[in-house]
Each structure stands twice: as structure tokens, then as C-alpha cells.
Specification:
With about 200 residues, the chain is mainly beta. The protein is built from 3 helices and 9 strands. The N and C termini lie far apart (about 35 Å). The chain binds fe (ii) ion.
Length: about 200
């Protein structure tokens, strides 16, 4: 039986710190779930690339990590990761903001459904419980994110799903922004570490 999203997240949050957890190569495919929970960072790692904000950003999103009630019929996923500096040190109190399309491919332009932000914990970790966004015309499947370390500039970018048929035809898609996805007993778990 596969672990649940909750148990995978709990294991991720139990990893004590960047250095104690050790470092492994970015995007390494491993069946060792413990390894998947450690930061994907090398000492010479490059900054996470920026991408367009797109037309649907809305400022002043709520402090919110759990979007489950916003889309009760969507496919569940928990996404999580670290915010790291280029030397692989974790950054605490970094802002991570997420907004994305719903299970019908629509953005909430009136309220704040499927929009929220949080600050990384003392080990630089962030997570959201949400859904896999549906497609809308002209784009492959994606999330929108903003990441800002304290006192730093805002990184605006997007995250993508591996194996999506439209990835190769999407003008904005970049494989450096692919989530590392695993199946769980009750949905998916996606992992991405931002380097800012
Ligand atoms: Fe979008």
C-alpha cells in the first residue's frame, strides 16, 4: 500500500535540516523515499529561472497552505520543497505564493480560490495541499509561483508536470521547472526546490 500524501509530507517535514539531511543530485530518480525528501541542491547550483507572471496574478492573496476546500472535485496533490540559496543553505521566512487554474481550467478572478501564500519554516521548507490544475487553451499544465527571500527581490516563475503531452508545444515551458512527482495512496506528491 502506498503512503498517503499526509504521511509523505510528515516525513518531509521531519527531515531536520539541509545539512543534516545531506545533499543529493538534483532530479535524481531514487526509490529511497528518504533521499527524495532531502534538498535537491549542489554547491554550484544555478538560480531558479524566472518566467512570466501571466495575466491572472492577483495581489494580496491570503496566508493559506491548504486549498482543498477550494476545489473539492479536483485531483489531490501536495506540493512541497525547500527554498535554498546558491550555497544550498536553506532560507527561512521566505515568501512562497501559489496561484493556479481550477479543475475546469479557470482562474478565480473575483475572490482568492486556489490562491495563497506562506513563509518557509526554520529549515526553509514550504508546502501546499491543492489540486492538479486543469488545462486551459494555449498552455500546458502549470502552476504560477512567486518566491522572495527576506529583503530579496521577487522571483516569479511557473512549475510544470512531467510527461504532459503539451509540454513540448508550450512556448513558455522549461524542463528546469519540472516538479518531481510521485504517486501516493490518495493522490500525488510533487517536489520542487527553489534556489534564489
Ligand atoms: Fe496560467
Amino acid at each position: 500500500m502506498k503512503p498517503t500524501r499526509r504521511s509523505v509530507l510528515a516525513a518531509f517535514l521531519a527531515v531536520p535540516s539541509t545539512k543534516a539531511a545531506g545533499i543529493f543530485e538534483a532530479n535524481a530518480v531514487s526509490t529511497q523515499s528518504a533521499l527524495e525528501l532531502t534538498p535537491a541542491c549542489q554547491d554550484v547550483d544555478e538560480l531558479t529561472i524566472a518566467q512570466t507572471e501571466g495575466p491572472y496574478y492577483k495581489p494580496s492573496s491570503p496566508l493559506k497552505q491548504d486549498f482543498a476546500a477550494d476545489a473539492p472535485h479536483g485531483i489531490r496533490i501536495t506540493i512541497a520543497g525547500f527554498v535554498l540559496a546558491t550555497d544550498c543553505k536553506s532560507i527561512n521566512r521566505a515568501l512562497v505564493e501559489l496561484w493556479h487554474a481550477d479543475e475546469h481550467g479557470s482562474y478565480d478572478r473575483v475572490g482568492y480560490r486556489l490562491r495563497g501564500h506562506q513563509f518557509t519554516d526554520e529549515s526553509g521548507r514550504w508546502w501546499f495541499s491543492t489540486i492538479i490544475p486543469s488545462l486551459y487553451p494555449g498552455r500546458t499544465r502549470h502552476y504560477h509561483v512567486k518566491v522572495q527571500k527576506p529583503g530579496g527581490s521577487v522571483l516569479t516563475t511557473q512549475l510544470y508536470f512531467p510527461g504532459e503531452p503539451l509540454n513540448e508545444r508550450d512556448q513558455i515551458f522549461d524542463e528546469r521547472l519540472l516538479l518531481h512527482i510521485r504517486d501516493t495512496g490518495d493522490g500525488k506528491f510533487g517536489r520542487f526546490d527553489f534556489i534564489v
